[in-house]
Amino acid sequence: MPRVVYLVFLLGLIAQSSQGQKQPPTHFLIGGTLVTPDGVIAHGWLDVDKGRILHLERSKPEIPGVLAVETEDLIFAGFIDLHNHPGFNVFPRWTPQHTFPDRYAWRDWHVYQKQMETRGYALQGDKSAFCDIDEYAEVKALIGGATSMIGMGADHQGHPGQSSPDCIRGLVRNLDHFTGFYGTELEQERVANSIGILPRDMNANTAARYAQEIREGSLDLLAIHIAEGLPTDAESSQELDMLEARGLLGPHTALIHAVGLSPSQLGRVARAGASIVWSPHSNFVLYGTTANVDAAFREGVTISLAPDWSPTGSDNMWEEIQYAHGVSERELNGLFSNRQLVEMASSVPARVARIDDKVGTLATGMLADFFLVKPLSAGANPYDAIVEGDIASSMDMVMIDGVPVYGAPELLERFGVALEPLTICGREKALNRAALPAGSFAEVSARLDKRMKALGTELASLDECGR
User: Fold this and answer.
1) 80-352 homologous superfamily
2) Are 1 and 142 in contact (CB under 8 A)?
3) pLDDT cut 90: percent of the chain above it
4) Distances (CA, A) of 296 to 75, 79, 86
5) Which of its termini does the chain have fewer beta carbons within 10 Å around, N or C?
6) Which H or E run includes 449?
């Protein structure tokens, strides 16, 4: 968990302790089936201290005085979302009656502008609403296993000197604003997020600055929307050339969407060492098709998976994995295994963002960002629990920086945290009250609901619950 959230959490503990409540431990053991890059450790144990995994053990360590929580759950590394627009995830699903040739077509469509863009910018333009939007969007991501995400905030041009409100220190790690990886100051991150390469989305000065930062080694990843349109669309087809002309096609670039790229263009992406971020759910809603991940895979392009945004994509990473599985089975002859899909949401994006020495896998020395899930059945493939499991009944706990932030109340209570009850798809869950960046989630939701009604719409549900 970002360091300042951890401090807020500690202050909450002090308050709880003064009221006679147990102080949650910073050193603990948690048992379950560990899903690691090197294989599955049945009945294994994680030894966690001060937010970091000290050891992975095959049998329970005997450490006097240390809390040991044994479960029958599967333990996975947290998901890393490299493509999202969280500020719009407070809006309900938007379902256009037809598809589009490219993103410029729907962005310029008067219906979208009336129903989404005008309302979205009005809401996000109110600075007093930012922290409520941030908390709601982060909780929405959290319930699907995301422990790191991108895109919160409207500053896609990346203007130097601009800083986000302090609440973005967060609940989920914000990769482009604050993660806690690089100290306590905001905007020290080594990941940048951009809406596109055309002049309407990125000016020449910004492009030159990104290219310079990559050359100098101060920018590890530029995640940028490229070729978000059909292969026959003229505007989309030129974007790869523009990206390359500006010196931005290389190992430090992740191409978001890439729907319009041909096999030969994907070959160029592979040779440049760049990667793509696949968001099939939103692609099919908006364009009736998705990126040619079959060709990308054959060309050796690294592929991450992410939900885009909940108005036309999935509510969270878990559900985007399930959607991608359906596409893989129906359209791609089972191209991706369940393990590959889960890794495309965890270890792969960690490697793409060059944070794989910190998060993305369960390993000694990594930060304790992980989640616990009920297995489908004894002896079942652990990855099936995500691809086939129900998110509300399956997800038992999410930890960030060794702090339990969401999950089953009875499990969170083992760690002594103060809980705020939450109902997800009819299931009783809870949030760690001390970790919430804008205060009570019920109060945040009430304020947002009032704002959304004033805009002539409604607050999105946290999850569509299979609808």
Assistant:
1) Metal-dependent hydrolases (3.20.20.140)
2) no
3) 88
4) 30, 22, 27
5) C
6) helix 441-454
